[in-house]
Amino acid sequence: QVQLVQSGGGLVQSGGSLRLSCTAFGFTLDYYNVGWFRQAPGKEREGVACISSSDGTTYPIDSVKGRFTISRDNAKRTVYLQMNSLKPEDTAVYYCATDRAGCGGGVYDYWGQGTQVTVSS
Predict the structure, then answer these.
(1) Which of 19, 15, 40, 43 is nearest to 121 (CA)?
(2) Mind listing the pLDDT tens digit for each residue in 61-112?
């Protein structure tokens, strides 16, 4: 079955760290740009970071620069989001998705199931 499966997430105190994983099953991630998105209650979904398929260039949003790192291991068909110095405003459901139109291109073929990240103050 072709799908993205997420793992990681959970509850952490402010200032703590978490790592999210997004693993492809049934296809290879090599040729896909992969992004992480989040949606907090009552808010629209926003892109958090993206990593390109071509050269691994990363595109984090300003609010997570210096705190979140997106990386990929194509051999493991996995993209990671390392989140450090977490803040309560990072609380959201996080999703990964492939984007075949380039980071920010908006052509999403596959989505992960979502994982809750809760940061307590």
Answers:
(1) 15
(2) 999 999 999 999 999 999 999 999 999 999 999 999 999 888 988 899 999 9
Output DSSP code: residue 29: S
Are the C-beta atoms of 77 and 28 separated by less than 8 Å?
yes
Please report the DSSP string for 33-95 in residue order.
EEEEEEE-TTS--EEEEEE-TTT--B---GGGTTTEEEEEEGGGTEEEEEE-S--GGG-EEEE
Distance of CA 18 to the CA centre of its chain: 12
What pairs with residue 37 in β-bridges? 47, 95
Neighbours of 32 (CB within 10 A): 22
Going edge to edge, which strands form the sheet with 68-73?
3-7, 18-25, 78-83, 68-73
Cα three-residue angle 85-89-93, rounded to 5 degrees? 100
